[in-house]
Design a protein that fits this description.
The protein has about 425 residues and is mainly alpha-helical. Among the domains are: about 140 residues, no CATH class; about 120 residues, Cytochrome Bc1 Complex, Chain D, domain 2. Helix content is about 45%, strand content about 5%. It contains 17 helices and 7 strands. A 3-stranded antiparallel β-sheet has the order 1-2-3, with no helix packed on it. The chain has a two-stranded antiparallel ribbon with strand order 4-5. Strands 6-7 form a two-stranded antiparallel sheet. β1 and β2 form a beta hairpin. The termini are far apart.
Length: about 425
Amino acid sequence: MFRPMPWLWLAMLLSLLLPARLVLAATGADAQQIERGRYLARIANCVACHTSEGGKPFAGGLPIRTAVGTIHSTNITPDAVSGIGAYTLAEFDRAVRQGVARDGKRLYPAMPYPSYARMRSEDVAALYAYLRAEVPPVAQKNPAPAMRWPFGMRWLLSVWNVLFVDDDPVRTDLARGEAWNRGAYLVQAVAHCGACHTPRGTLLAEKGLDERSRYFLAGASVEGWSATNLTGDQLTGLGAWSRADIAEFLRTGRNAHATSFGPMSTVISTATQYMSPADLDAVAAYLKSLPGARREDKAFRPDPATAQQLHQGRFDQPGARQYAVFCMPCHGADGKGFARVFPPLAGNPTVADPDPASLVNLLLDGAVTARVGTAPADYHMPGYGWTLDDQELANVLTFIRGSWGNRAAPVKEGEVAARRKALATQR
């Protein structure tokens, strides 16, 4: 019987162990890339847009209402037919950064590829690895888009992309430091903050892509909500917020100045609460560097007159009595609210916003704060559209926007009526 020599046993053992070690090393590298992709998918908030209400994660089908029609988010699970299962990395990269699907079909820029165009190739590869390895495949086709003419002709997007998509890397400014540059990359590319918070022009492209534009993050209208000004303006922006305030809001959905509501609660619940402390600070550092788009350089000045009148039971102004009944129990006679639970109305950027759309939505339908792991509960604000008519709601909002030192324009009955009608058609 053949008996291998001791050195032969050693050679055979090494021949078995060496491939195993190589496999483990490769698996370790892949696992690291997948975990990075998981993190990027979270802070890019892929699940919020690519999951319909009650649907499977990443299977698409969420209706996205735009000014030119309604489209539905795509299936990005690794299903080979209706998802990205047949996509190569190059094809996935082209879809993410250029807005062109595997079959050559142009994607509508409701998918924020104008922002993703500036993502690094290694980050796109990590996203691809995560979606392919960790997300269960779901066979689900999308409904056809319902677009107004001529926007249903997708070939027009090839021209739009030439005009408006900038795939240059996010600008680096070494003098600003590591945190600022990381924040610039996250805000401009991965988290695509400009897709909601930057106003758009006639052809629906963002008017600015970075801090060199006075329009960048200056506030915009999105699906009937007013996405707030994220520049350094004192009244309607983040000028009164510290770097720590911004990080706290993105992590918890609340701080001493505001509490999240509407779409931003979803963003915090599904995305920003998962950012690392370093990335939250980086985003805050970058946002705090932006000059005020509206040149508001004077801080909010409180005025005690309204609080005194309410304490005296005087309801001289239209909307004051309704405020006392429906709003004052939580937000107080002084409009200061209760920090990190019921937001202050005095000096609140959303209250001061020239566009009252978010306030109209809040009073009509109510809102809920972000559901986060750092807070024991989320808080619901009830809507009052069922009990107050359009004029009464307009009066309450006008009262709030003109009290305690606020100096925002009145709200008209027609604005409330139009939004009530729009919300009714979406139900």
